[in-house]
């Protein structure tokens, strides 16, 4: 029906198209306005309003970079610059990143998209951007010195290529790389499939994050850039627990988690309560015959992995790196194990010299989580995070998958802690403890116990390591 409304709508569309065409002519010479973000919270997924449709990802404590269409080319503008990143509440780091944040914004495109990346360098030294994992012309690969000139401070370079294969990718500098990555320069890239792909299932929620390591001394703000292996902060998207947002899903959702490792060691990533399959690696979607269920997948240095599972168990499920020192925050190194060591006498002597001295970890390290020892300003608590049952004694690469039956589809808000049905929480046994049975015989069989050293008739003196047990009746804290 060609009524007035339709006519106006048609006219509007034509006017819009003309305007877009004339804008883009000017824009060919102009840079797209860079989008900046300074908040460290998880942004809502960015639904595409131009270009081909796709199901957008959710970047943990991050966001997706908006683009503009210019004659069929998707244009993005990355600005490499110094940033201040809140890594956890009360703990800010002075880093380098992109568009106001470390990591930089996530780039989302569709298989077959022509992509133009403007990269402006506002750092005090030269840089470049390598598009980790992409098929592209050699001169767009971003290896300064090898495939392009360095981008000097103050200059803008343009990268242009077609996103040829769908999958999970990263970007990072390939110039003064050790320093620039130690300072936090990196970002995530997702290429969505153009159409229904036999190896890429649609999912209800698609989370992404990068793994990073930093070496920031307690009380300071800037990472040590010459550290090679001995990092003291292990992060998801430059956040450390309890600063990492939880992944909030609806019971029955099919969930995909994509992660990339830009640290200097591997991370066995572990999910509680569910089994997942690895559906994608650096090379894209994996053949179905190569998939098996597991609850931990190791992500090696420079690798990307995507895992998928059905979130069908309600609750608050831990999701973390299984290297236990990666789920702790900055602490002094070279701390001897003090568990079971009676050092009360030593403390008395030290306290005469250093009045505030306090020995760490006589009963394990859990004391640290509840201790009110003053920390230097701008220090992340080593083990923290308050849960519904007390301190979690976690830090670093740790977050929670929250599965709720009443979480609305598409709602990413953080629900309250899980309310466990009565009778489903571990509880204290209060009956009498029977005496523990003890084995009464010594070694025998293939390895008989030796009672004296070789070539000696003297009886061997028994040796026992001296330990101090907690006083009886001790209940923890
Ligand atoms: Cu780890």
The CATH architecture category of the domain at 38-214 equals Sandwich
CATH topology of the domain at 38-214: Immunoglobulin-like
On the 0 to 100 scale, the average pLDDT is 84
What is the helical fraction, as a range of percent?
Answer: under 10%
**Pattern of helices and strands:** HEEEEEEEEEHEEEEEEEEEEEEHHEEE
Any idea what the radius of gyration is? 28 Å
CATH class of the domain at 38-214: Mainly Beta
Shape label? globular
Give the strand tally.
24
Hetero compounds:
copper (II) ion
Q: Report how far the terminal alpha carbons are from each other.
A: 77 Å
Number of H/I helices: 4
Commentary on this structure:
The protein has 477 residues and is mainly β. The chain has a domain at 38-214: Immunoglobulin-like (Sandwich). Helix content is 9%, strand content 29%. The chain is built from 4 helices and 24 strands. β3 (73-88) and β4 form a beta hairpin. The longest helix has 24 residues, at 4-27. It is globular, with a radius of gyration of 28 Å. It starts with a helix and ends in a 73-residue tail after the last strand. The model is unreliable at 1-28 and 473-477 (pLDDT under 50). The protein binds copper (II) ion (CU). Copper (II) ion (CU) binds next to loops.
Labels describing this entry:
disordered C terminus; 4 helices; 8-stranded mixed sheet; mainly beta; Immunoglobulin-like; binds copper (II) ion; about 475 residues
């Amino acid at each position: 029906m060609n009524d007035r409304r339709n006519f106006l709508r048609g006219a509007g569309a034509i006017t819009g198209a003309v305007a877009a065409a004339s804008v883009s002519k000017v824009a060919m010479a102009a840079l797209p306005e860079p989008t900046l973000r300074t908040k460290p919270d998880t942004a809502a997924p960015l639904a595409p309003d131009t270009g081909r449709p796709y199901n957008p990802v959710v970047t943990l404590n991050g966001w997706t970079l908006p683009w503009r269409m210019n004659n069929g080319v998707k244009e993005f503008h990355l600005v490499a610059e110094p940033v201040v990143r809140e890594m956890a509440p009360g703990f800010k780091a002075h880093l380098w990143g992109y568009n106001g944040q470390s990591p930089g914004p996530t780039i989302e495109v569709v298989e077959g998209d022509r992509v133009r990346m403007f990269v402006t360098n506002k750092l005090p030294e030269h840089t470049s951007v390598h598009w980790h994992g992409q098929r592209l012309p050699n001169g767009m690969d971003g290896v300064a010195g090898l495939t392009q000139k360095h981008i000097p401070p103050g200059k803008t370079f343009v990268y242009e290529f077609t996103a040829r294969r769908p999958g999970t990718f990263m970007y990072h500098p390939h110039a003064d790389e050790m320093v620039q990555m130690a300072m936090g320069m990196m970002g995530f890239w997702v290429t969505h499939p153009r159409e229904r792909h036999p190896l890429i299932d649609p999912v209800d929620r698609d989370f992404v994050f990068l793994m990073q390591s930093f070496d920031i001394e307690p009380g300071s703000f800037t990472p040590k850039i010459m550290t090679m292996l001995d990092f003291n902060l292990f992060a998801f998207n430059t956040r450390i627990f309890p600063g990492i947002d939880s992944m909030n899903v609806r019971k029955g959702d099919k969930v995909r988690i994509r992660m990339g490792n830009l640290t200097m060691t591997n991370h066995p990533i572990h999910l509680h309560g569910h089994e997942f399959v690895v559906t994608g690696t650096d090379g894209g979607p994996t053949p179905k015959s190569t998939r098996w269920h597991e609850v931990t997948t190791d992500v090696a240095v420079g690798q990307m992995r995507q895992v998928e599972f059905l979130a069908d168990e309600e609750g608050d499920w831990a999701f973390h790196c299984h290297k236990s020192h990666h789920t702790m925050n900055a602490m002094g190194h070279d701390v001897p194990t003090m568990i079971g060591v009676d050092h009360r006498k030593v403390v008395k002597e030290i306290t005469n010299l250093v009045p505030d001295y306090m020995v760490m970890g006589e009963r394990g390290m859990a004391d640290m989580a509840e201790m009110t020892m003053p920390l230097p300003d701008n220090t992340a608590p080593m083990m923290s995070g308050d849960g519904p049952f007390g301190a979690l004694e976690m830090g670093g690469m740790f977050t929670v998958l929250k599965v709720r039956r009443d979480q609305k589809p598409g709602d990413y808000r953080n629900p309250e802690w899980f309310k466990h049905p009565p009778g489903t929480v571990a509880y204290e046994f209060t009956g009498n403890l029977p005496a523990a049975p003890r084995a009464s015989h010594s070694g025998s069989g293939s390895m008989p116990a030796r009672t004296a050293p070789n070539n000696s008739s003297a009886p061997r003196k028994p040796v026992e390591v001296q330990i101090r047990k907690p006083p009886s009746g001790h209940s923890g804290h």
